[in-house]
Amino acid sequence: MLFTIIMPNYNNARYLNRLFNSLKEQTCQDFRMIFVDDVSTDGSIEIANAWRYSFFNDRLTIVPLQEKRYNGGTRNVALKLLTVEDEYVMFIDTDDYFNGPECLATIKYIIEQNCKPDCVRLSYVWDAIDEQRDVILNQKTPAELAADCNVACWTKCIKRELLQPFPENTLMEDVIQHLKQVDCINTVVPCEVPIVRWNRSNPNSCSTNMTLQNSKWISSFYRYYADLLDLQLEKSYTKEQRDIRIARTKENIKNNVYAQ
Which CATH code of 3.90.1150.10, 3.50.30.40, 3.90.550.10, 3.40.50.300 fits the domain covering 3-254? Predict the structure, then answer.
C-alpha cells in the first residue's frame, strides 16, 4: 500500500463515522488503516467493525487493547504491525477527518513529482465552532521542520522505514517524537493544500479541555523533561531545538507553570 494510516482511538465514537466516510470518499484508495482502540467504553469498536465489514474489509485492521496505553503507546502498537509493504505512514486522530476527497491523491502526486521524499509536510484546517482557518505549513528542509511549533505527528507523511517510536505515559509525546523523527530524515516537501481538519471542539480532548489538560500535565511534566534530557540526536539543528525546549521546560518547572 502507498499509504498506511494509523488511527489511535479512545471514546471518539461520535466522530468515527465522519472520519471513516472521509476515507471512503477518497479518490485515491491505495491505503490501509490500523485502528488501535485504547480501552474505549462508548461503542467505538462496534462502529469500526461495521465499517470493516461493510466497506474496508482487510484494509482496516482493528486492535482492541486490554490495558490503557495512551497516545504514545497506542501509536507504538500500530508501528509494530507495519511491514515492508507499507510505503508511507500517516497518523490521524479519530475526532479529526480528511478535508475533502482529493487529500490522498494530492499527497500521492507530491510524492511522485518529488522523487519520493522522506517526508511530506501536511497543512491542515483549524476547525472550531466559532473559527475555521487554513494553517499552511511550508517547511522545505529538516532544519525548518525541527524549529516549527506544529509538531503533531499528523502533520507529516513519513516513509515507513524512517518512522520513530513515541515516548509513553506522558503528554507532549509529539514534541519528543517530532525531534527524533526530523533527526532521521533528509528531504521534506510541503503540501500547501490543507489535508486534515483538526477538531478544536471536542470537549474530551486534552488539547482543548484546559482543566483536563492541566491536571494531566502536572502528572507527566517531569517525565517529559526526563525524555528531553535523554533524547539522543545526531544533527545540530535537532540538538539545538532539544536544548531550547529543555531550557523552557526547566524554567516552567521552576515557576510551577505546567502548560506550554
Answer: 3.90.550.10
What are 233's three cell numbers? 540526536
- Our CA dihedral for 79, 111, 24, 13, rounded to 10 degrees, sits at 40
Phi, psi of 196 (to 5 degrees): -105, 140
Give the position of cell 522545505: 140
* pTM of the full structure: 0.93
pLDDT digits over 34-51, tens only? 999 999 999 999 999 999
Bridge partners of residue 156, in order along the sequence: 121
- Is the pLDDT at 63 greater than 60? The verdict is yes
The dihedrals phi and psi of 33, each to the nearest 5 degrees, come to: -130, 145
Identify the CA nearest to 239 among candidates 184, 187, 183: 183
**Residue of 184, 191, 193, 142 lying closest to 164 (CA atoms):** 184
- Inform me whether the pLDDT recorded for 210 exceeds 50: no
Band (260; pLDDT cuts 50, 70, 90):
very low
